[in-house]
Amino acid sequence: MFHRDLKVKTDESFFLFGARGTGKSTWLEQSFDRKECVWLDLLDSEIEDRYMKNPKSLENEISLLLKKNHKLSWVIIDEIQKVPRLLDSVHRLIETKKIRFVLTGSSARKLKRGHANLLGGRAALFALYPLTRRELGEDFDLDSVLNWGSLPRIQNAGTPLERIRRLKSYCQIYLKEEILVEQLVRKLPPFKGFLEVSAQMNGKLLNYESIGRDIGVDNKTVQSYISILEETFLGQRLYPFHASIRKSQKQAPKFYWFDGGVQRYLAGSIRSPLVTQTAAYGEAFESWVINELIRHSSYHELDYQFSYLQTRNELEIDLIMRRGKEILAIEIKSSPRIDPVEVRKLETLATDLPGKPKIYYLSQDASRQEIGKVTCLPWYDIFSEI
User: Fold this and answer.
1) pLDDT at position 180, please?
2) Model pLDDT for residues 115-150, shown as the tens digit of each residue
3) Which of residues 112, 127, 142 is at a domain's end?
4) What Rg do the C-alpha atoms of the chain give, in angstroms?
5) Is 366 exposed, middle or buried (0-12, 13-18, 19+ CB in 10 A)?
6) How many of the other CB atoms lie within 10 Å of CB of 20?
7) DSSP per residue over 102-162, as a string?
8) By CB count within 10 A, which of 101, 188, 227, 270 is most buried?
């Protein structure tokens, strides 16, 4: 069993979001004593049906339990997006009975539609992701993570064929349970085509018109599909850096899938092992490092905003991390050696950033060097730097 980096230090109610299969239920089992909690799993069809018909019954049930057990600590509702109307009762119980809730979900879409304020700030927001390098510990293997991803269920699959089967099952269950059952899209065939195209474009600039032509839908539909992926925690957009957030969102973003194994399965490349010092390996490595930094920032509540920098002549810095006036410019290379020419290019590009940014060049070279204003690090040292 893996011990997760997510540490929720709060006595208040909170939401725990994350894609299916990231281990939310397991984390709850590790973090809470069932004897001191009321635990409601809305994936149980009988429980879901009961509250769907009468969401207010939750208040009566909790009130009765409080009379029997004054020491009731928490009420845990797993997959709250199944019955969004329960949030009205949750809200009232927080206000009138001072009950603390843990509300997990793999989709924020239905919650946002019906309850955009997510309890009006009365519950904190946390997220759980696929396993990190630190969480994997001695089981971490870079090539394995790049090829197969790091969803918990993949880690104990003994053979490549079994891993492929589990990734296939994961993607099929997602389509069935998140898309069809939750009615997130009207027509499934173009969305399935979109999943394949978006996975193939992982880490590249999004061209909504081009994607739309490929799958036979308009630009707005493509953008809504991207929003579905974000709201089901399957990835996120990175917009080009600009001092004005509003202006940055008028330019083409990139999209990064949340897990390399899922992305490679959907892209149709899962049976082709990644080979070091190839473009495909470099792209997978860049995507994984960016996801690791997003997870690190989230778990430690560092509040960084993530973007990338592209100049007019299409030169890029892979990642910009911004927090107030603090700016980190990060170039990510999978190469085994530091390339001084690339380092100098990075230093020149970073002059377009305001203030005094910290500039990092990450690679698989184990040495640490200072070249001009650039700090060259082995990739794994960046996490202690921030």
Assistant:
1) 67
2) 445 676 678 899 999 999 999 999 999 999 999 999
3) 127
4) 22
5) exposed
6) 18
7) EEEES--HHHHHH-TTTGGGSSEEEE--SPPHHHHGGG--HHHHHHH---HHHHT--SHHH
8) 101
Task: Please tell me the distance from the alpha carbon of residue 282 to that of residue 271, in angstroms, as a whole number.
Answer: 18
Closest CA to 230 of 177, 184, 273: 184
- Length of the chain equals 386
Q: pLDDT, tens digit, for every residue of 242-299?
A: 755 455 445 789 999 999 999 999 999 999 999 999 999 999 999 999 999 999 999 9
Write phi, then psi, for 183 (nearest 5 degrees).
55, 50
110 and 214 in a common domain: no
Q: Which of 231, 248, 270 is the last residue of a domain?
A: 270
Domains held by the chain: number: 3
Residue 245: the pLDDT is: 47
CA distance 154 to 163: 6
Residue-range definition of the domain harbouring residue 155: 133-270
Q: Could you tell me the CA-to-CA distances from 149 to 226, 265, 272 in Å, in that order?
A: 21, 10, 14
Tell me which residue has tokens 């009731």: 72
Domain shared by 54 and 119, yes or no: yes
pLDDT per residue as tens digits for the range 13-32: 999 999 999 999 999 999 99
Angle of helix 188-200 relative to helix 208-215, nearest 10 degrees, comes to: 130
Question: Rounded distance, CA 377 to CA 386, Å?
Answer: 13
Is the Cβ–Cβ distance between 107 and 182 less than 8 Å?
yes
Token duo for residue 168: 């296939």
As a whole number of angstroms, the distance between CA 371 and CA 356 comes to 16
* Other residues' Cβ atoms within 10 Å of the Cβ of residue 175: 16
Neighbours of 276 (CB within 10 A): 14
Q: Which residue has the tokens 């519950």?
A: 123
What pLDDT sits at residue 9? 81
Calpha distance 370→345 (Å, rounded): 14
**pTM value?**
0.93
